[in-house]
Design a protein that fits this description.
Length: 331
């Protein structure tokens, strides 16, 4: 983790909101559903699958949880209507988990059933550790009746080894990531290398247990270990996929796709972009580093364009004006 990464991450609170929106547009597929659908269409064209997610987490009322449920259903319907290769990701606090577990269970079953009718997969996001146990219990319960539901396991949690054993025994599909929420040391490993090693251990246990695994990482060290395990265990391509966030390390994504591996991209959209963006930047300094490089690269390109093509009346480059990306980035 570089000094630049840490510096950018620590400066997030003082970055003006419009600047955050500008630099976050690469990682968020806009505020509207139509923008997200266009992004997924572009990803499909480059050989990638997608998982669509609505930004925003905990709801404060039963009516808000119902509205979130209806929003998820509209998304599934839009994916079907546009024949896009994408599932959805849901947050249980959005469906009412913080209000009432029975309410959440009813809402979750409704969206899983609705998605299943359209042959769409529902990935249940993992939130902070206060919800881990309840989330896994709901997924395991739902999986007994619906095959189109999967869980997320965070490698930095100390409990995850036991959790992957249960999920593998039940045949649940697992998205394996490092984890981004701040957790106390009693709950989560803090050492970077320890988290990496635990990730590899969990991946091996899931694959040996027969789970379908989404290898969700931008860490090429972990990608290499995943490729090693795939090779050594002779896995067929229907047993795993790689997963990445929208806009992060597109070079590595392209390498894996060109090598013939299944790739899924997490596509968040919605009006609650600021909270998502700042949390990603603060809690994952590596992504902050990518952002810093993008900003520096954009400034350098603008300067070069101004030198090469001359400026407009307001002092900006004519080429720069024509090439400023919108909220939907073609990937």
């Amino acid at each position: 983790m570089g000094i630049m990464d840490k510096a950018v991450a620590s400066s997030v609170p003082v970055i003006p909101r419009p600047v955050v929106r500008k630099i976050a547009s690469r990682y968020i597929a806009g505020g509207r559903l139509e923008e997200a659908l266009e992004t997924i269409q572009n990803l499909n064209g480059f050989g990638c699958l997608a998982t669509m997610s609505v930004l925003g987490e905990s709801t404060q009322s039963e009516s808000a949880a119902t509205e979130k449920l209806e929003q998820y259903k509209r998304i599934v319907g839009a994916l079907e209507a546009n024949d896009l290769k994408s599932g959805i990701s849901v947050k249980l606090t959005g469906l009412g988990l913080a209000l009432d577990e029975d309410l959440c269970r009813e809402n979750l079953e409704e969206i899983v059933f609705y998605a299943g009718e359209k042959n769409r997969f529902v990935r249940v996001d993992m939130e902070d550790s206060s919800y881990t146990a309840a989330t896994l219990e709901l997924v395991l319960d739902m999986h007994e009746r619906h095959a189109n539901i999967g869980a997320v396991i965070q490698a930095y949690l100390r409990r995850s080894l036991k959790d992957v054993t249960r999920l593998a025994e039940a045949g649940v599909s697992v998205r394996l990531c490092k984890g981004i929420y701040y957790e106390p040391r009693e709950v989560a490993y803090k050492d970077f290398d320890t988290v990496r090693q635990n990730y590899v251990l969990l991946l091996e246990e899931l694959i040996k247990g027969g789970s379908y695994v989404g290898v969700a990482t931008h860490d090429e060290y972990l990608v290499w270990h995943a490729l090693r395990i795939i090779h050594q265990m002779g896995l067929t391509k229907d047993r795993y996929e790689f997963q990445m966030l929208l806009g992060v390390d597109e070079d590595l994504r392209r390498i894996l796709v060109n090598a013939g591996h299944k790739m899924r991209v997490y596509v968040p959209f919605g009006e609650d972009w600021y909270e998502y963006s700042t949390r990603r930047l603060k809690e994952n300094p590596k992504i902050a580093g990518y952002v810093a490089k993008d900003v520096i690269g954009s400034i350098a390109k603008a300067v070069e364009n101004r030198r090469s093509y001359g400026g407009t009346n307001d002092g900006t480059s004519a080429v720069q004006e024509r090439t400023i990306p919108g909220l939907v980035r073609r990937v």
